């Protein structure tokens, strides 16, 4: 008779069939970078509704190339592809994103994409990037910042807003910036100004690109002195500040206090959502 064998009761390793949230974000960044870098090379990054079909086809072609780099398959993967590219019954995220871009009638035009400071310069970094970190004066201390900024839109004379793409559900608020909890955008503005002295920051926002039904600017803040540029761009918002520069300075003050605390050995535990 055949000898008895012991069954292997170890759980079967789960095979990934779709992208992680981080991979989804990186994918959109790559697609947007290639698309806008191509437009910039052609001479203009602003476009009208008349070019929507043409540019949608271009962006979808780029997306298909990037999606084909993955070996996933199955219903979940196909559903994700369709959510990006669209089908006969839905426009898809990329088309919705371009429609949102067409709405922008301001003098601010997309100029820099994946602008990097202090990081290795790879093929996905803007040509204006620098391998050296940018120095930010926090008052009592100078910060050597290494970062990559998703996008900088600017006027011809150098006024600019910073944009950070968000593909997930969670987005910081303006209140969290004022409390010193969200530090990203207030750091990016002086970073660009420090690296490019001819530029002047007038605003910032997170750019929600989660699905075709959720494409919009969020956590918008800006300088009320430049409402003519900001209102056609972001719309009528109450977060335009008379004391915009002071808001950035206040955020820098929070950062300086955190650095001082770390140097003194104070690392407060995260208590979770308030």
Question: Which runs of at least 5 residues are low in confidence (pLDDT < 50)?
Answer: none
What is the rounded distance between the termini? 66 Å
Could you spell the SSE succession in H and E letters?
HHHHEEEEEHHEEHEH
Give the C-alpha Rg: 22 Å
The count of β-strands is 8
How many strands, which pairing sense, and closed or not: the largest β-sheet?
6 strands, mixed
Structural class: alpha/beta
User: Can you tell me the overall shape?
Assistant: globular
Mean pLDDT: 88
Helix content: 25-40%
Spatial strand order of the main sheet: 1-4-5-6-7-8
Continuous helix count = 8
Instruction: Classify the beta-strand content into a percent band.
Output: 15-25%
Verbal overview:
The model has no long low-confidence stretch (mean pLDDT 88). Helices cover 38% and strands 21% of the residues. The longest helix is centred in the first third of the chain and has 22 residues, at 21-42. It has helices spanning 21-42, 52-67, 75-85, 93-103, 174-178, 184-195, 227-234, 244-263; strands at residues 109-117, 134-137, 142-145, 147-154, 159-166, 200-211, 214-223, 240-241. The strands form two sheets. Strands 1-4-5-6-7-8 form a six-stranded mixed β-sheet, with helices on both faces. A two-stranded antiparallel ribbon has the order 2-3. The chain is globular and about 55 Å long. By secondary structure, the protein is an alpha/beta fold. It contains eight helices and eight strands. Helix 1 crosses helix 2.
């Amino acid at each position: 008779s055949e000898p008895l064998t012991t069954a292997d009761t170890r759980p079967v390793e789960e095979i990934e069939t779709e992208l992680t949230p981080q991979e989804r974000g990186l994918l959109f960044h790559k697609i947007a970078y290639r698309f806008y870098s191509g437009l910039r090379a052609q001479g203009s990054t602003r476009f009208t509704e008349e070019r929507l079909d043409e540019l949608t086809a271009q962006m979808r072609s780029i997306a298909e190339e990037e999606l084909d780099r993955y070996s996933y398959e199955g219903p979940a993967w196909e559903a994700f592809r369709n959510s990006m590219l669209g089908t006969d019954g839905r426009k898809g995220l990329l088309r919705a994103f371009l429609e949102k871009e067409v709405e922008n009638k301001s003098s601010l035009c997309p100029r820099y994409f994946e602008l990097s400071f202090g990081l290795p310069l790879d093929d996905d970094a803007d040509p204006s990037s620098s391998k050296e970190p940018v120095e930010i004066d926090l008052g009592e201390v100078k910060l050597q910042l290494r970062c990559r900024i998703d996008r900088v839109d600017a006027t011809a004379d150098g006024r600019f807003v910073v944009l950070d793409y968000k593909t997930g559900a969670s987005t910081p608020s303006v209140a969290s910036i004022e409390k010193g909890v969200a530090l990203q955008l207030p750091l990016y503005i002086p970073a660009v100004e420090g690296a490019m002295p001819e530029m002047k920051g007038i605003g910032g926002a997170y750019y929600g690109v989660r699905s075709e039904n959720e494409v919009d600017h969020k956590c918008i803040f800006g300088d009320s002195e430049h409402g003519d540029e900001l209102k056609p761009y972001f719309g009528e918002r109450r977060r335009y500040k008379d004391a915009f520069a002071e808001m950035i300075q206040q955020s820098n003050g929070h950062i300086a206090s955190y650095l001082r605390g770390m140097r003194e050995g104070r690392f407060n535990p995260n208590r979770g959502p308030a």
